[in-house]
Each structure stands twice: as C-alpha cells, then as structure tokens.
Amino acid sequence: MAGDVLSQSEIDALLSAISTGEMTADDIKKEDEEKRVKVYDFKRALRFSKDQIRSLTRVHENFARLITTFFSAQLRTYVQITVASVDQIPFEEFVRSIPNMTLINVFEVPPLDGNILMEINPNIAYSMLDRMMGGTGESHSNVDNLTEIETKIMTNLFERSFDNLREAWESIAEIDPMLVELEVNPQFLQMISPNETVVVISLNTVIGETSGMINICIPHVVLEPIVPNLSVRYWMQSNTKEMSPEQTKALETNVKRAQLPVSVELGTSTITIEDFLFMQQGDVVQLDQPADNPLLLKVGSLPKFTVQPGKVGKKLAVQIIEPVKGGDEDE
C-alpha cells in the first residue's frame, strides 16, 4: 500500500523528533505498521486526478511567469511570482483559509460557466497600490477602507493582469476573462456550495521588500467541460489542423510563384594553384567535358536534367533531354 505524501512541515517535525531523541526510527516504523486504516472525509471528494492537477500546475506556472513580467513593467520594481502549491479542497475550506478582510477579484471566464476568484493578500495589494500612485511600495492593512479612486486603480490593474491568464490557458481552452466585482469580505461570497470542490493555485509573491500570497480559486464547475483537455494524452497529441480547400489552393499558388536558381554546368577542369595565380585575360582553360556531350542542368545545387545548348532568338538557351537518374525527381 502506498504511503501518504508528507508535507515539508511534517518532514521537518519528524526530523526534529528523531534528532532530539523524542522518537526513533523504530517507533516510526512500528506506528506505520499499526496504522492500517485511513480516515476519508466524503465532504472532501477528490474530483481531479494527480495527472490533471499536474496539468493545471504547468498552466499556472506559465501564468506566473507572464504576470511576473506584467507586474514588473506596471510597478517598475522587482517582482517575483512562483507557484507555491496547487490543491483541491472544499470551497468552505478555501474561504476559511484567507484573511477576513482581503482583496478578492471575481472574474467570469466565458464560454465556460461559473466564476474564478483571485484573492490578493492585503500586504501585496497595498504595496501594488502604493507603487501605482508613485510611492515606494509600503504596505498597509486597511483594505476595508478603499476609496473609489483606489478601487478603480486596483480593478484596472488586475483586470489587465488577467489577460495573461487567457494566454496561459490557450493550451487547454479559449477563455475571455471579465471582471465582475471586487469584494473585500470572503464571507459575502455566495458563488457555489460550501462543499463544492475547488482548485486553489497559491502564488508566492514578492514585490520589492513585501511578500505575500495570491490565490486563484477555480470551482470544479468551471473546469468540468475541459477536464479531458487536462490529460497527458491531450498534451501529447498533435495540434495540427487540416487546411481548408481555400488555404490549400492559396498555398499551392504561392509555391508556384516561388523563384528557384537554375544553372547549366558547361564542364569542369582541374588546374594547379600556380596556373590559377598567373591566369590572365585571354587564357584558355581546357574542360574535361567533350563538346558533343549533354550538359548538366542544376536546380539550386541539385542536378536535375541533362540538356543540350542552343539559341532562342538572340538568347542562349538549353533544351531538356531527360531527367538525371538518381537526381531526386520527387523533390
């Protein structure tokens, strides 16, 4: 039976207990052998597989890189945003885990049903606001006292930042994020049932000297139509689409218009470097090619046809005799 995956804090606690002598390795082994029953909470139903969670992690790692660049340009200061964790939990647990007074952007993501939440820790939010208004990036905690001007600045900033989510999600779905409302009290959110499963992507955020978390909450109802797109098979399959007849015809026409260098080789000769250095105007170079033999026509650097020289009007020309055998006729 596969064991549970321990968090970093649990690993640190075990190592500390062993190092202080409170617990030995034999005690841990004995406890593991005795504990064969695992408690399962049916209210915390796991709706997404590990494979699908990994796909969501990849998508939002790309999103984190995009908004790092976006916020760095907007705030004109050092910004670093990375994915800290991706978990599936009940919506009620997510609401309890965030501060009582915080900044919550509610977004619609048509054509998908439901809303996505972006919760920004007040320290981060006020640091951003201070930078946008020309300050040094100092942080405050009176998020419940936002003025209309401050609210407008913040909503504009985060509404534009969600354009990066559209780009990050292109590999799994085409969405058009739109800001619905800005909320500061999570208790007023009546978005979905408290027991509904949500995916929470936690982004570790550093802005100048201030650090905090940005949490993106995606309900299962939003992801349900595109769950098949989160599989490894979908990521591995080719995204090549068949061209329409009009596109095929246009491509064929453009290919026919492409110009190719065509040259005729009169013959070859081998001389010494000394003869080459003293070569002057009027000197004659004897070719290895007999005068009555066909010449070689090349398309680019590839020999394609044997030809014979002649004239068309007052211009030199060649007449094709036959394709060169082994001359890559199909190319």
Characterise this structure.
The chain is of the alpha+beta class. The protein folds into three domains: 8-38, no CATH class; 47-236, Chemotaxis protein chec (3-Layer(aba) Sandwich), CATH 3.40.1550.10; 294-322, no CATH class. 34% of the residues lie in helices and 24% in strands. The protein has helices at residues 8-20, 25-34, 50-75, 91-97, 122-132, 148-161, 163-168, 220-223, 232-236, 245-257, 273-277, and strands at 79-90, 103-108, 115-120, 178-183, 197-207, 210-219, 262-265, 295-299, 302-312, 315-323. The protein has a six-stranded antiparallel beta sheet. Strand 2 (103-108) and strand 3 form a beta hairpin. The chain is elongated, with a radius of gyration of 35 Å. The chain starts with 7 loop residues before the first helix and ends in an 8-residue tail after the last strand. The model has no long low-confidence stretch (mean pLDDT 79).
Q: For the CA atoms, what is the radius of gyration?
A: 35 Å
Question: What form results from the Cα inertia axes?
Answer: elongated
Please tally the β strands and state the result: 10
Give, in spatial order, the strands making up the sheet with the most strands: 1-5-6-3-2-4
Question: Approximately what portion of the residues adopt beta-strand conformation?
Answer: 15-25%
Largest sheet: 6 strands, antiparallel
Q: What fraction, in percent, of the residue positions are helical?
A: 25-40%
Distance between the termini: 58 Å
CATH architecture of the largest domain: 3-Layer(aba) Sandwich
What sequence of helices (H) and strands (E) makes up the elements?
HHHEHEEHHHEEEHHHEHEEE
Number of domains: 3
Secondary-structure content class: alpha+beta
Overall residue-averaged pLDDT value? 79
Low-confidence parts, pLDDT < 50 over ≥5 residues? Answer: none
Q: How many helices does DSSP assign?
A: 11
What name goes with the CATH superfamily of the largest domain?
CheC-like
Provide the CATH topology of the largest domain. Answer: Chemotaxis protein chec
